[in-house]
Amino acid sequence: MNRISSSLTPLLKWGFPTVWFTMVASALVTVVRLDDLPKSALPITMLVTMGLFGFGICWLVLWSAVDEVHDGGEELLVRKGRIQDRIPLAHVAHVGGSRQNGPRVMLRLSRPSRLGTDILFWASDESWIGFGEMSIVRELRARAEDARKPAT
Fold it and tell me: Region 81-87: what's the mean pLDDT?
């Protein structure tokens, strides 16, 4: 099976949040431990807001993505954590993609899988920069359309 998701997914999903929350927590501890604590709660409020903002971004953009996607010809093998599922291409109703937050591919399924009806992953061989539709999106869309056609 050919892996079509990026091998950098674990770094994206866990590296950025680790660095972000470590920096916010370090700054918060530093502000709280200062002997001459500011009379204003603004620094603490800003740091807590930064932490919540970072959590929201991680929740929406990073943690919603699956860990691995492998192309098995007529089906995709998808894994997120310990949950693994085989998704027939005939069950893929829509394929979309965006380079806005990295080369992300979104699959909308006609039938829910163990991972839900939306499968999101970062493509492995796509550039982060560019215009136009990604090649993996075009290919998966065409193959899903062919798989949904009745056999003659």
Answer: 94
